Amino acid sequence: PSDASRASKALQDVAMMRKTVVGTRRRVQENNDKKLSAQKEELLGRNAAQAAAAAATSSSSSGPHSPNGGHDPNAQHHKDTLLRKEQQSLIHSTRKLRQLVGESDAILGALKTQGNTLDGTRSKLSVDFLEAIGLSRQTALQVVRRGHFDALLVYGGILMMVLLMG
After folding, report:
1. pLDDT (tens digit, 9 = 90+) per residue, 130-148?
2. How many angstroms separate the CA atoms of 33 and 46, rounded?
3. Which alpha helices (DSSP H) does the chain contain, by range?
4. Does position 109 have pLDDT exceeding 70, yes or no?
5. Contact 121/129 with Cβ under 8 angstroms?
6. Which of the 8 DSSP states describes residue 70?
7. In terms of pLDDT, which residue wins out, 123 or 24?
8. Phi, psi dihedrals of residue 3, rounded to the nearest 5°
9. More confident residue, 149 or 52
10. 37-81: pLDDT as tens digits
């Protein structure tokens, strides 16, 4: 047997195996579909029978003189479970919000401290810079104070314009 005939035989074998695998896969899928359909039918049949039995029971025992007062204990248990879950969710949310507020307060405090530190540093650097270019310390302090006063005038003027225009 030549290489070509062996290759041809191998290709035929592969094709036959492929057909076998595809056929088997199709049969397995059909079998699974049949089982699933049977299970669905069984469940639907049970649900329909249970619903009919529940309707018959509730119509005969849901009057004001029934032992449970016309209330389904399973429905009440379900409601209680849902309420308990909602309460736990609210407690968790409250806890997380308190944690968030605490972290925010800590960050705000740190930013205020940092701002005060930087403000003092800026004033000191301004005075040091003005002294370095040859101004006296008193003149440098006067320039810094004048800058603060000018800022107050600008923001006061903006506030006055907003009030007058509004």
Report:
1. 888 888 888 888 888 898 8
2. 20
3. 3-61, 73-132, 137-165
4. yes
5. no
6. T
7. 24
8. -65, -35
9. 149
10. 887 777 777 666 666 666 666 555 444 444 445 556 777 888 888
Q: Which of 140, 111, 147, 146 is CA-nearest to residue 124?
A: 140
- At residue 55, the pLDDT reads 64
Give the distance between the most distant pair of CA atoms in the chain.
111
Task: Determine the 3-state secondary structure of 67 from DSSP.
Answer: coil
Tokens standing for 20?
């076998």
> Do 126 and 144 contact (CB within 8 A), yes or no?
yes
Round to whole Å and give the CA distance between 100 and 49.
52
Judge contact between 135 and 125, C-beta under 8 A: no
Q: Which of the 8 DSSP states describes residue 2?
A: -
The one-letter amino acid code at 32 reads N
Residue with tokens 């059909």: 30
Burial 11-49 (b: 16+ CB within 10 A, else e): eeeeeeeeeeeeeeeeeeeeeeeeeeeeeeeeeeeeeee
Determine the Cα–Cα distance for residues 116 and 156; give it in Å rounded to an integer.
22
